[in-house]
Amino acid sequence: MKKQLNTAIAALFLATASMTAMAAEDASKGYFGISYGDASTDTGITGLTGTASLDEDKKGAKLFAGFNVNDNFAIEGHYSDFGEASLSGNNGDQFVDDGVTYEFLTTATIKIKVKSYGLAGVYKFDKINEITPFVKLGLYKWDAEATVNAGSVSGSASTDGTDPFYGLGLSYPLSDTVNIRTEFERFEVDGYDSDYVSVGISQNF
Known about the structure:
Blueprint: H1 2-27, E1 30-41, E2 45-46, E3 53-55, E4 57-68, E5 73-89, E6 94-97, E7 100-103, E8 108-124, E9 132-150, E10 153-173, E11 178-189, E12 192-204
Antiparallel strand pairs: 1-4, 1-12, 2-6, 3-5, 4-5, 5-8, 6-7, 8-9, 9-10, 10-11, 11-12
């Protein structure tokens, strides 16, 4: 009887340990996080004259969540806000866009704001001193809104599209469930390149 009881206890212990391991494995399948960094958009605008100024650099933020298919591959989705790029000038100032020269007829400011959401495949390389290098490739849908303020007159217009994006980065575990990452991503926006360099933190679940 004692031998049977010990066998039953051992079997129960092994079953519990197995279920705990499976739960821990399942718990690490998913992750979510947030990142913040510098976003830069190459608008293609050149040849500014006079007091005209162009600001293509701004701060951006991104929410992301993913699912680890296995140790090396994950599917990751994101929502991002890349801030505003702006162009301003006074009467007589000029700029060149796509080979065409434009002139400000009055003091005006043009702002363009881009938001997006997308899905990518992420490939994670083997760890090097606990650091995991990774690359990603995917598609994203973007929405761009342009506003123009010229004295008492203002207006806005919007457009959207779907384009590819890619990125690379490094991830480092701060604990069993929390990771810090740094990454570079390049997004194409209607023929223009928008780069996002960020630092983020993620939580496994």
